[in-house]
Automatic annotation (TrEMBL):
<dbReference type="InterPro" id="IPR050600">
    <property type="entry name" value="SETD3_SETD6_MTase"/>
</dbReference>
<keyword id="KW-0732">Signal</keyword>
<protein>
    <recommendedName>
        <fullName>SET domain-containing protein</fullName>
    </recommendedName>
</protein>
<dbReference type="InterPro" id="IPR001214">
    <property type="entry name" value="SET_dom"/>
</dbReference>
<dbReference type="GO" id="GO:0016279">
    <property type="term" value="F:protein-lysine N-methyltransferase activity"/>
</dbReference>
<feature type="signal peptide">
    <location>
        <begin position="1"/>
        <end position="24"/>
    </location>
</feature>
<feature type="domain" description="SET">
    <location>
        <begin position="45"/>
        <end position="244"/>
    </location>
</feature>
<dbReference type="InterPro" id="IPR046341">
    <property type="entry name" value="SET_dom_sf"/>
</dbReference>
<dbReference type="Pfam" id="PF00856">
    <property type="entry name" value="SET"/>
</dbReference>
Length: 371
């Protein structure tokens, strides 16, 4: 979890491979790098794609510095010819918080990916497709087991799309049918794409908003995705990006946070956390420093008013009841899904508790000052 009492046990997952031998996995990565270079791209000799623990074949994959790298040094450049994209037919997404164009673009990209996956070795993106074919279904909650989905649906805030977004936004809109392969294509598109494009290697860089050490040009740059070191990197250091505070993210951090990271990427992120509630409107971030949690509100929400505090207390009470009623017995929920559910529940409880205490203290002090 990411609780104060259990700091440091979060499992970071993003580009995880399953069901293949170590040699085959390394070969597949080498083939992608060779292909990217053949298209005019680059991949620094000082960088490698490997498991975080090379002695543990089940540890997660990431991109790492093989040797010291100077700030501003190029890490890799992925040409547009390597993107699987729908730029030609994409709808404009500049309207903030407008979901329809975004969902339509994801639908188009899903069908593009499905076509390329069916082409396989005949695809013009064959090395990348070979890698994507190693990605198992069920990495996102929307594609979990029925038992896992049923439990997470009770943990997530009521009416959250956390579990049911494929049904709501893609099946009911006739983007896909009731087909497991198509469900996996939507899942993979959401998890690995940048709305209108899937970008090899860039999609293997893991997310951690507390440890971002890369910078990049827009993915729409004529020369493709250029990624550099944002600071000096030490040999062995993992290379991180942000999945929500990024150049091409359309300022989604105003309405998108830790629950959405779980929904769209399948893991509970390390601190900082962000929580956004719509009714009443509440936005806050939680940072962890030396084992202590610190709260940052939006300017509009500082301090929270009594109605907002009551809402959060009601949500905390609901989460504690879920713990008593639902989370005492794993039942048939698969281990990885159960761990993630407990991590998310603990993060929500701990973060909301801290916010309520801080906001209540601020209101109490304000009342005392008025006396």
């Amino acid at each position: 979890t990411m609780a104060l009492r259990k700091l440091g046990t979060t499992i970071l997952l993003s580009a995880v491979l399953f069901g293949t031998t170590v040699d085959a996995e390394f070969t597949r990565h080498d083939q992608i790098v060779t292909w990217v270079r053949s298209k005019g791209g680059s991949f620094s000799e000082k960088v490698e794609i490997r498991r975080v623990d090379t002695s543990d074949p089940k540890s997660y994959w990431g991109v790492f510095a093989k040797e010291d790298i100077a700030a501003k040094e190029d890490l890799f450049n992925i040409p547009k010819d390597c993107y699987i994209h729908v730029f030609d037919t994409a709808e404009n997404m500049n309207v903030e918080e407008e979901m329809e164009p975004y969902l339509n673009n994801v639908c188009k990209l899903t069908h593009k990916l499905k076509e390329e996956m069916k082409l396989g070795e005949k695809s013009e993106y064959a090395p990348y497709i070979a890698y994507l074919k190693t990605q198992r279904p069920g990495q996102l909650p929307a594609n979990w087991s029925k038992e896992g989905k049923d439990v997470l649906r009770k943990v997530a805030i009521p009416n959250s799309p956390m579990v049911d977004w494929i049904d709501w936004h893609f099946k009911e809109k006739n983007c896909i049918g009731n087909d497991s392969f198509e469900e996996h294509m939507v899942e993979m598109t959401i998890q690995r794409s940048y709305d209108t494009a899937l970008i090899p290697i860039w999609d293997m860089v893991n997310h951690d908003n507390g440890r971002i050490n890369t910078e990049n040009d827009t993915m729409y740059h004529k020369d493709g995705m250029k990624v550099r070191a944002a600071r000096n990197l030490k040999a062995g250091e993992e290379i991180f990006a942000s999945y929500d505070s990024c150049l091409d993210c359309y300022d989604i951090n105003s309405y998108w946070g830790t629950p959405e990271i779980l929904k769209d990427f399948g893991f509970v992120e390390n601190y900082p956390h962000r929580w956004v509630f719509n009714d009443p409107a509440i936005w806050f971030e939680i940072y962890e420093h030396d084992g202590e949690l610190e709260v940052y509100f939006s300017e509009e929400d500082e301090p929270l008013n009594e109605d907002q505090i009551r809402f959060l207390q009601k949500e905390l009470d609901r989460l504690e009841k879920v713990e008593d009623d639902v989370l005492q017995n794993q039942g048939a929920v698969p281990d990885n899904e159960w761990r993630t559910i407990l991590q998310f529940h603990d993060a929500a409880v701990d973060d909301i508790e801290v916010v309520i205490k801080m906001a209540t203290d601020v209101l109490s002090n304000a009342d005392n000052n008025e006396l």
